[in-house]
């Protein structure tokens, strides 16, 4: 599944807004909401493999879910919003 960058929400002030343009943006926003819903489900650990029907009893059912999306997001937020590095200097000059 391919996703586009969100560069189409910016519009010049003097550009006219008409019904066709508004409908286009609403459709694009609906596509983006689907993308965000999918990404949120991945973050929360609701992976598609968990919704596959069970296999017969005689077959192995090895469904292992590693919530790597949550790990990546939490690590990046920790680096971004964590405790800042402090620098101590002997002289004020």
Overview of the molecule:
The protein has helices at residues 19-44, 68-81. By secondary structure, the protein is an all-alpha fold. The chain is flat, with a radius of gyration of 23 Å. The mean pLDDT is 80.
- Specify Rg, calculated over alpha carbons: 23 Å
Q: Report helical residue fraction.
A: 40-55%
Q: Which of globular, elongated, flat, extended, rod-shaped describes the shape?
A: flat
**Oligomeric grouping of the chains:** single chain
Q: In whole angstroms, how far apart are the ends?
A: 56 Å
Count every beta strand, where a strand is a DSSP E run of 2 or more residues: 0
What string gives the helices and strands in order? HH
Strand content is under 5%
Low-confidence stretches: none
Helical stretch tally = 2
Structure class: mainly alpha
Largest sheet: none
Q: Report mean pLDDT, rounded to a whole number.
A: 80
Layout of strands and helices, then pairs:
Elements: H1 19-44, H2 68-81
Helix pairs in contact: 1-2
Features of this protein?
93 residues; single chain; mainly alpha; 2 helices
In brief, what are we looking at here?
The chain has 93 residues and is an all-alpha fold. It has helices at 19-44, 68-81. The model has no long low-confidence stretch (mean pLDDT 80).
